[in-house]
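Homework help board

Subject: predicted structure for assignment chain

Our instructor gave us this sequence and asked us to write out the predicted structure in token form, then describe one feature. I got the tokens but I'm not sure how to describe them. Can anyone check?
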Amino acid sequence: MFKRSFASKDRAGKSVRPSKRSFRGHQKLKLQQKLDSPPVGNTLTSPIITLVVGREPRIFAAHEDVLSLSPFFTAALRGQFYESASKRVALPDEDPQIFSCILEYLYKGDYYPRLQYNKRHVSFELEDAQDLHNLGGRGSVESTVDIPGAGGALLKDTVIYCAAERYGLDELKRLALRKQGLQSGITVDVILRSARFAYDNTPDSDSKLRAHYLALIIRSRKTFKRSGTMQEEMEIGGSKLFFDLFVAMCNHVDDIVEIGNNRSPKTI
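My token output:
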């Protein structure tokens, strides 16, 4: 699922061979059509809603019918977050830079850096990506964000995925996960910090983002094995991440043993 190359001893690279299924022609066309067709039409006539975002408030404005594409805002516009007289919604716990990406997606169907289809390479790539390792348009571009209280940089697409979970935007979750898969050269500490954040901000039923991190760590195990950061994080514990990682590693070993037994029966 994820095949990683390493830009340095402490960086995990990007998968260079996605599954055959995801690259079928009709699926590429379907995704490209979604990216070319924003969720809203050209005529926006609904009332303007003011959104007060963050602990140090920043003011945003959006059309009510655009916000209503999210089940969260459909409910918020009728609930305790909404001041009907002034048409204001307060979101004190949201990060303004992430919320800006959410609004960009609601209006345009994507957020920067946008996902683009490269006909020459027959693959998707990130807008303005620096192709430093000749990976066909893959590379690091605005890959991290600093969120107060996170203890350091986080992968931007992970934070957006978690926000999309809160706002009920499943298509945005899929987009964020796909875009994160195109980033490369991310350091171990950023990956582990982002994995913890993902576990803290997604339900236990999440089978996409959490699995992405487990597969990444297993595929890049040589890098993580010699990382002092990985050792420190495991000793600290306090996250279901490491038990899930243990189970995933056991399943990985079982798969290898089963393949070996099919060739020449034996057990370990």
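Reply (TA_rk): Your tokens look well-formed. For the description, you could write something like this. The CA atoms of residues 97 and 145 lie 8 Å apart. That's the kind of observation they're looking for.
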